[in-house]
Amino acid sequence: ALAQYIPSLELMNRKLPFGLAETGLCYQPEDYDDSDAIGCSSEVTEASLAWFCSHRTSSQWLDYWTRQRLQWWRKFALGPSDFSVCDVRDDELNEGALRGAKVLYKFPWGTETLETLWMRGDNELLRSHTGSQAGLQCRDGKRLVVPHVISLSANVDRGLLAVLFNSLQHIEKVDSKQRLHQRTVLKLHPALAPVKVALDMGKGSTSELRQVCEGLLQELLEVGISAWPGYMDTTLSSVEKLHT
Prior knowledge:
- The protein has two domains: 2-165, Bira Bifunctional Protein, Domain 2 (BirA Bifunctional Protein, domain 2); 194-244, Anticodon-binding domain (Rossmann fold).
- The chain has helices spanning 5-9, 58-75, 123-128, 156-167, 207-222, and strands spanning 18-27, 43-53, 83-87, 99-107, 110-119, 138-140, 143-145, 148-155, 168-174, 180-186, 197-198, 227-228.
- By secondary structure, it is an alpha+beta fold.
- The N and C termini lie far apart (59 Å).
- The strands form four sheets. Strands 1-2-8-5-4-3 form a six-stranded antiparallel beta sheet. Strands 6-7 form a two-stranded antiparallel ribbon.
- InterPro entries: aa-tRNA-synth_II/BPL/LPL (IPR045864), Anticodon-bd_dom_sf (IPR036621), Gly-tRNA_synthase/POLG2 (IPR027031).
């Protein structure tokens, strides 16, 4: 995102604060060791944000984004308390970082980091753009300043795993014979569910009802709503052949 800082200045009228976000594949270094995590891979999907602000308000912006990121994860969760934040210890700070924070998730095997936030000052921006500082300056009120950077990076793969674990719900039900039945249900938040509507006609449905379901399915798909076709997707033959 820092590489796009100069081209973005005119779009933002050189006025602070503003941010640049991006998502893409990243590669872990060969000596990267995270053996306790499930699904470790040298290739991960990462989402990042570079937030440019005045040096006077950089600490407040770090606190703001830490709160916002925690609230974002919790609003989709069945168990919001499994998500938490903590400050990065001084001996764990990245080079050039003044402060840091982490968004954490409590997996069954232990707590892992989903996002890391850094208050980096202006050093990183100055290092990435050589030459006159005048070209880097933005307006902070009536003054021209080189902005400080708040950086956020999130491991999307680990975040998805956290959402899936948090959405698992164990349901117990006692039948008429007092027998206990248990099952595990994936209860995703509607905003995150890949399928928004499920149309299950059942094998005993009439021809008219099946036609209504088929028509409704096509209407949902045409307007971009994810719909699961139920029995219509279980065979290459027509729906009528399921009942012959």
